[in-house]
Each structure stands twice: as structure tokens, then as C-alpha cells.
UniProtKB/TrEMBL annotation:
Gene3D superfamilies: Glycogen Phosphorylase B (3.40.50.2000). GO terms for molecular function: glycosyltransferase activity. Pfam families: Glyco_trans_1_4. InterPro entries: Glycosyltransferase_grp1. This is Glycosyltransferase. It comes from Paracoccus shanxieyensis.
Length: 414
């Protein structure tokens, strides 16, 4: 391998397997993402994955490895990840969200490899997840929180020692960017330029607002307490009590599905306005529905994880109404594409939506800002920024630190 063509090795979070005929069993989304990495990286690209057996991948596709433009290294479930490290020159991209990958940095640097860690979840989000997880006793919740606190020390050490870090979302940037000399914030999402809302769709929505027709609210995502799913029916009830004309379409599934369905059925006024739908394919169904049959995206999300749902809704031309978790609050400040309310305050959210019903110009102003922002941060723009960052990490190995150009973290895709 020449110094001009360093290998990019990605340590995957998703499992894989090998079929009896030698083909690889891979998740379709993962395989397409790896293929994109291989097309844009100047050297070899390799994925390191745990072989969890075919039974762990019932919906995976069987792929002839000879047809892939990247290599796959399969490791037994209990094999040390370090055994899959290659030789210099090269760079590894590992996940600081996965505890077992935190030790890769030292081993990779010992081989002369550059190290980049990606991270999404902050400590406060991890603690929040542990605290509100359903079905776990208080002692188990406390143990999980203590375990996360102990792991954070190793996580921060790995991020400090890395040659670069890639942070998905504003909270991770706020907590970790200052620890590393080469940080990059990006906003992960699935919206390509081709599936963004069109000007014709924006005009149709503007005309509808001019006619003061009922606001069409939409929500999509997992119906779980940590996602605020338990607040959707109370929000709809508050809107009915305030006599706000609206409809609410909910797309998703989860542990709260039955409770939500029961809550809708128990109130005649909700049955007329609120519909619960099963999850639908993202690009072929959810995106067209959001672009053509909705006016405002409603989120009751209480976590601060970097949910891609916000930016994807903005790409459909929808402003976002939600609680001021750290991710959405920062996104709204940066984009002007929505509104934030105090955490968990359904009454204030309903009051705001009532105000928006009377001020359709504000709805469209925020919708326009949301779409502009999403276009600046579409999937390809964010992916390109991450690839440039990886290349810059490799290039810095051969130049003095004082002469290297630092990326402006927070400007991915801009």
C-alpha cells in the first residue's frame, strides 16, 4: 500500500454474517453507505464487523463479496477488535458511543494509523435514557447510570487522544469539541437534494395557509417514553380544549402504540382529528406525505440525542414545534426553522400552535427558513464534509501541526 493511498477502516456497529455459500449477509443501508465511502475515498476501504450468525440477520441481503467495492473483515463475537487493525498508512473511524471500541485508539496509533472517533450521545443523554427506561427496577437504573458515569472517563480520554473527532449534532459538539484539535460537527440525515420539498409544494402550502384551513400536524418516530410519545394524546386533547382547528397524523410504532390508540378511541373529538399510522418507508412514502399533506412537524421529544427527524422534516418544508431539548434548541437557534417550548409543557405547546393558527405568515416564514437550512445540510453535503475531514486527518500526519489547516467544526456542508 502506497503512502498516497491510505486505507480507511470503519469499525461497524451493525453485525454481519457469512452464508453457507460464502456470500456475505449485510444490511442494505449499511452496504450502500460503505459503497459511497469507497467511491469517495482515494484508497482502499474496509469494514470490520462482528459475525453474529445468519439467524441474527433475518432481513439482510446475501451479497457476493467480489461485487463489492470495499472489503469486509468478519470477526467472531468474542474476538478482540484490535486483531482487525491494518498497517500504516491508514486511518480508522471508530465509534466512541460503543464502549468496546474505546481501546482501539492506542492500538491503532501503535501501528502508525491515524484515529478518528465519531460520537452522538452525550453523558446527560445516556443518563436520561437509563433513568426513564421502562421495565427496569430502580436498582438496575442506578447501576446503569453509575456504569455510564464510569465509562465517560475512558470515552473522554479516547476523544482527547484521537487525531480527529466527528460529532453528530449540537450537544455532542458542545460537550466534546474543545477536547480535540481537529473536531467536526455534522448533522446526520437522509435527505438528498432530489427529495427536498419543491417550490410548487411550498406554493401550494402557502395558498392553503392563505385560506386559513386547519393546520395539518404530523409526527413520526418511535412511540416510546424517551421519545415523548406519551405526550402526543395530551397535546391533541389540549388543542381540542382550546378549540384550535387541526389534524394530527402520527406515524410510528413502539411500546406506547396501544396506549395512544386507546387514548384516541376514548375521546370522540380526537377520533375525528387524530390518526395513528403504522411506520411507512421513508423516501417513497413518509417524505411525499410530509411534503404534500402536512404543515407543521410536532415533536414531544425530551431527549437531547441528535435525532435526524428534525432536519428531515425541515427538508420537507415543515417548521418544527418541539420541546427545548439541547439538540432542538440549538437547531432552532441556528436555522430559525421552528419554535421551542419548556420541556414537557404540553399546555404551552398547544397555546403556541393556537397562535400559529392565527399567524400563518409566521408559519411560512419559519417553513422557508427550515427548508433553506435543510438544503444547506443535505445528506451529500454532510457526508462530503466528513470525508474531507478524514482526508485532512491523514494529511496532518505528514505536516507540522502549526502548518495544518483546521476544519471549522460546526460548518459541515456549509
Amino acid at each position: 500500500m502506497s503512502s498516497q493511498n491510505p486505507e480507511l477502516t470503519l469499525f461497524a456497529a451493525v453485525p454481519a454474517a457469512r452464508a453457507q455459500d460464502g456470500r456475505l449477509l449485510l444490511d442494505d443501508k449499511f452496504a450502500s453507505g460503505m459503497a459511497l465511502h469507497a467511491r469517495q475515498w482515494p484508497g482502499p476501504v474496509r469494514a470490520v464487523m462482528r459475525d453474529m450468525g445468519a439467524e441474527a440477520l433475518p432481513f439482510a441481503s446475501a451479497i457476493d463479496p467480489a461485487t463489492l467495492n470495499f472489503q469486509v473483515t468478519l470477526l467472531p463475537p468474542d474476538a478482540p477488535l484490535e486483531t482487525a487493525l491494518g498497517q500504516a498508512p491508514g486511518v480508522i473511524l471508530a465509534s466512541a458511543d460503543m464502549t468496546e471500541q474505546l481501546g482501539l485508539g492506542d492500538a491503532a496509533r501503535a501501528r502508525g494509523l491515524s484515529v478518528v472517533y465519531g460520537i452522538e450521545y452525550t453523558l446527560d443523554t445516556r443518563l436520561q435514557i437509563a433513568r426513564i427506561e421502562r421495565g427496569r427496577s430502580l436498582p438496575k437504573k442506578l447501576w446503569s447510570m453509575l456504569w455510564n458515569l464510569r465509562q465517560e472517563r475512558g470515552r473522554r480520554a479516547a476523544l482527547r487522544a484521537a487525531d480527529g473527532i466527528q460529532m453528530n449534532g449540537f450537544p455532542a459538539e458542545q460537550d466534546y469539541a474543545a477536547m480535540n484539535a481537529l473536531p467536526l460537527r455534522y448533522l446526520d440525515n437522509r435527505m438528498s437534494a432530489q427529495i427536498m420539498a419543491t417550490e410548487a409544494e411550498v406554493d401550494a402550502r402557502r395558498q392553503r395557509h392563505g385560506e386559513r384551513r386547519p393546520l395539518r400536524l404530523i409526527h413520526s418516530g418511535r412511540l416510546e417514553p424517551m421519545k415523548g410519545g406519551h405526550l402526543l394524546v395530551p397535546l391533541a386533547q389540549a388543542l381540542c380544549d382550546a378549540r384550535v382547528p387541526f389534524t394530527l397524523d402520527i406515524y410510528g410504532a413502539g411500546s406506547l402504540e396501544a396506549d395512544i390508540r386507546t387514548g384516541i378511541a376514548a375521546a370522540p373529538q380526537l377520533r375525528e382529528r387524530v390518526q395513528l399510522h403504522a411506520p411507512v418507508p421513508f423516501e417513497s412514502e413518509l417524505v411525499p406525505i410530509s411534503r404534500q399533506q402536512a404543515d407543521v412537524f410536532v415533536s414531544c421529544h425530551v431527549q437531547s440525542d441528535p435525532s435526524c427527524t428534525y432536519l428531515e422534516a425541515m427538508g420537507c418544508g415543515l417548521p418544527v414545534v418541539g420541546f427545548a431539548n439541547r439538540m432542538l434548541a440549538a437547531l432552532v437557534r441556528d436555522s430559525q426553522g421552528g419554535w421551542c417550548l419548556p420541556m414537557g409543557d404540553v399546555a404551552q405547546m398547544a397555546a403556541l400552535i393556537g397562535t400559529l393558527d392565527r399567524d400563518r405568515a409566521s408559519v411560512m416564514t419559519h417553513a422557508d427558513a427550515a427548508l433553506r437550512y435543510a438544503r444547506q445540510h443535505d445528506f451529500q453535503a454532510e457526508f462530503d464534509a466528513r470525508m474531507r475531514h478524514l482526508a485532512q486527518v491523514v494529511s496532518r500526519v505528514s505536516v507540522p501541526a502549526a502548518d495544518a489547516t483546521l476544519p471549522q467544526h460546526g460548518l459541515a456542508g456549509s
